[in-house]
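Page 42, continued from yesterday. The earlier attempt failed because a stray header line got pasted into the input along with the sequence. Redoing it now with the clean sequence only.
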Amino acid sequence: MRSPTVSTPAPGFSAAGRDATSKGALAARRRAFRALHEQGCFVIPNPWDVGSARYLQHLGFPALATTSAGFAFSQGLPDSMDDVGVARRRTLAHIANVTAAVDLPVSADFMSGYGLEPTDVAESVTQCVATGVAGLSIEDATGDAASPLYDLSIAVERVRAARHAIDRSGSDVLLTARAECFHVGHPEPLRESVRRLQAYAAAGADVLFAPGPQTAEEIRTLVEAVAPKPLNLLVVRDIGMSVEDVAALGVRRISVGGALALTAWAGFMEAAQMLKSSGSFAGLAKAAPYAEINGFFADPLPRHRVDDDSECGRSESLDPDDVGDIADEGIGHRG
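This time it went through. Structure tokens are written below.
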């Protein structure tokens, strides 16, 4: 199913009203995020909520990226491209909450931009920029099994619309363009990814991303195809290479998508299934110490959320259901 057109703006996401992040600090985050892409290789892990975001900052990662899958699962929703996926408004609230919770650059997994037409993508991107992100990604999957990728000319226009929306905002937000050829089962995913990523780079994308390559040869091909622009590599399982190995291939940024959330789910599922099937508490043996986690969150780092009826102001509530009326016009994906 194609993602529906979204014409009603989500209120309350204006950077002008941010009370925890000054404009100067926000600009500094965005400069720092751009600088990370200029040399070397870094890991940008994907938290699925405010708590996991704060812990990843605590570990010393230089930047974070949201995950559509991890967030969707935390809301009891599938990471899908249909009408029951995560709504744009709820996604914007989630992104804003994460950016407010940490002192790091945050890049948004913004799926296909929440709209069919380039003008719809531009509108959504404008609202995403206002959440305080340092970057955002737009992918070219349609959600229609019969035609899973936008025609290249249309996909390019969507990337160009996102680029223009960012430029009009006056922010230095980094635009990542994603080619979903591997994910949708394209018959020649590497070749088509190269063709699309090069077109997206010419349309104004700062970073290129084709989730799915598994071999060093495929990864190196993509790196060389988009050079000198940086390539993001998605790693969601043990691929037999370390961060150092991936960096040696020329990859500039490594994300893990929903893998950390799925790892957390694996521990929860194992413990819950043991409790139900055999009455065993053995699955609780690996639980994190309560005092450690509770003490960590007692640290006075920012933990605010965004009120839908404010201009990105924070209330004290962290309840994800406190974001107001939610429309199901959005789409999700494996990110």
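Notes: The domain at 22-258 is CATH 3.20.20.60 (TIM Barrel).
Reminder to self: strip header lines before submitting.
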